């Protein structure tokens, strides 16, 4: 789900960029990113079930702090359950559209970032399944290497959660809190471009019937710039009960995983 220049990055398998939008060198700037990952993990849960993911995106930034971007990845969670899959056809791609405004409170060193994030999963969804498309609003603060961001779902359904699933509850009000730390550890070893990332997240689904699905996730990552590429490894895990989500291909969706990647931003 995109290499945004905010705390979203730590929740994904993308290498952590600066937590909030950087000041543009000119009034308008456009950047691109592409990456190959051994697996796509979002908020502690696999999206590709042990299979690699090819991801990429484009970002526009204005010197005022306004930004807009798009990002895409292959996914498989929508179709991995055979005849019980969420989609009859398609559903194997995730496309994210996002935008917002980022800046700093005077010369305080405290950054802010507010915006929207629309997740899209094109394809033919089964009628009995709630919509997978999800719209979140977010707001975050950062200081030096630390950042905290709050995301709240404002759509009626989120990632197939909603009334069509039989819970009787809208997904509206589902929220996620992300706390992130990114630090240049290479400075202590005379190694250029070596960065460590720590992340903790809390996911809460709206509706009393969905309380058992509340969980927390963690990520510990290391990233090294090598010949203009970012090469890294992320360890992810959740505290979700193994029986809550069940297994797909013999593996629990939220169990601990190691993800290797190589990516480039240009």
TrEMBL record:
Presence of the UniProt keyword Signal in the record: yes
Pfam family, one: Gcw_chp
Organism, scientific name: beta proteobacterium KB13
Keyword Signal: yes
Key words of the record: Signal
Record-linked InterPro entries: CHP02001
Cleavable signal peptide: 1-21
Lineage top rank: taxon: Bacteria
Protein name: Uncharacterized protein
